[in-house]
Write a structure and sequence with these properties.
By secondary structure, this protein is an all-alpha fold. Helices cover 79% and strands 0% of the residues.
């Protein structure tokens, strides 16, 4: 190997070690934040009791600690991890296929569609012979997929360019926001309260069933996106450059769009509307790791999970008796983080 080749090899290996270190550090940070979230709550469950109940399992000798941990706190924490990871990945891939730094699950109207679906179920679902806990998530999931179908139809009719996808998404966003507002206007005070609480976004809705469903969606979608990692990295160079490398750009964009739709639908269907995760996490990951999707995608997922679980800790600390909806915390915390990212990257552009 020549001297120049050896030097390039050392640089590459150094970069690989740095990327692995970043993912490892983010994983350890997520584990620490998750443990803090498990230990935080209105009941006096100390670290020793927490670890004992965690090791003993759901049928441990301390029935109170086991119930608090395995039936209440653990599903909530795991749902925070899964939702944060889903929104982080969804936001990253939206920004990739749309070449738009402001893209997120909100940009294409997916979250607004989920809110309308849940509001529809809450308002008119009482007459249907369906379990109450299942109706709102199922309706939100279905309406999110309908919104995806509308955006995709517009893109197919006018050509699936990033600009058309964004414009179609904005139109769908305003449509479902208007329908959502109409339902709130017509609803009784009691129903309106339920709709507003759902729209705030809360991890307290989590159950082991919802955790399993979202974990299944991630297990289905992530391998598909991981297989396309180098193609998605090439897409960041522009459509023309990606095509010159043999990437079927339109097919890749459609496939990624469907994956993003499934991730967003699964994330918001069970916990409600949670903002800023899908916008902030990809930019934070990109600032740390660059554009290589092999590192960028897991890092965006980990940062999204860290931010959401951290917001859960803050929510429970602010109001120990009745946790503040985590969607409010992510919106408040997300604004300064986004401004910091804007000022950090403003001089060099968004790329």
């Amino acid at each position: 190997m020549t001297t120049a080749g050896a030097r390039l090899d050392r640089v590459y290996r150094r970069g690989e070690r740095r990327r692995l270190a970043l993912v490892g550090a983010a994983t350890l940070t997520l584990a620490a934040v998750a443990l803090v979230d498990l230990a935080t709550g209105p009941s006096a469950l100390g670290p020793a009791a927490l670890l004992s109940a965690l090791g003993a399992g759901p049928a441990g000798p301390d029935r109170l600690a086991a119930t608090i941990l395995w039936q209440l706190r653990l599903p909530t924490t795991l749902m925070g991890v899964l939702v944060g990871a889903s929104l982080g990945i969804a936001g990253l891939q939206m920004q990739t296929i749309l070449a738009n730094p402001l893209a997120s699950p909100f940009t294409l109207g997916f979250s607004a569609a989920a809110g309308f679906g849940a509001a529809l179920a809450i308002t008119f679902g009482g007459a249907l012979p369906v379990a109450g806990w299942l109706l709102a998530p199922a309706s939100a999931f279905a309406m999110t997929l309908i919104a995806c179908g509308l955006v995709y139809l517009v893109a197919r009719l006018r050509g699936a360019s990033p600009e058309i996808l964004v414009l179609g998404g904005i139109a769908v966003l305003f449509l479902f926001q208007a329908l959502q507002s109409m339902l709130q206007y017509l609803a009784s005070p009691e129903v309106l309260q339920q709709i507003v609480f759902w729209l705030f976004g809360s991890l307290l809705k989590a159950t082991w069933t919802s955790v399993a469903v979202l974990a299944g969606i991630l297990a289905l979608v992530v391998p598909i996106l991981a297989r396309d990692a180098w193609r998605l990295t090439a897409l960041r160079l522009g459509d023309a450059n990606a095509r010159s490398l043999g990437v079927a750009v339109e097919r890749l964009r459609r496939r990624t769009f469907v994956a993003v739709a499934l991730l967003t639908a699964g994330a918001v269907a069970f916990v409600g509307t949670i903002g800023f995760i899908g916008l902030v996490a990809p930019h934070a990951a990109r600032a740390l790791a660059g554009e290589d999707q092999r590192t960028l995608m897991p890092l965006a997922a980990l940062i999204g999970a860290i931010v959401l679980v951290g917001a859960s800790v803050v929510a429970k600390t602010l109001s120990p008796g009745a946790a503040v909806p985590v969607g409010i915390v992510t919106a408040v915390v997300g604004v300064p983080i986004l401004f910091a990212l804007v000022f950090r990257r403003g001089a060099g552009g968004w790329g």
